[in-house]
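Researcher: Next sequence.
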Amino acid sequence: FDTHLRSSDFFDIAKFPDATFKSTSVTANGGNKFTVAGDLTIKGTTKPVTFEVETFGVEEDPFGNTRIGFEARTTINRSEYGIDFQAPLNSGGMLVSEKVGIEIEGSAIKQ
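Model: Next structure:
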């Protein structure tokens, strides 16, 4: 499955090894919730997207960095990024949804 996702049917990582997101604005929604807008680039196509972000605690890591944990979520239409693989099912439906959820769990270091 992973090999197929890496192929030209989906992400074509041989030609497009990176997907990137560059934020353009951050809006505080109260408490630990934020909306982060920016430009998402997949397979050489850039589109504006908005992530809903929830932060979790600020800690000093073992290297002396101030770090904050977060989760971010958004949904994109994969065909808008040139990911157009599809296969019909016997039931009449399609194998892959046009809508794809993106979930990121990570941490950021204060600079």
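Model: The longest strand covers residues 45-60. The mean pLDDT is 91.
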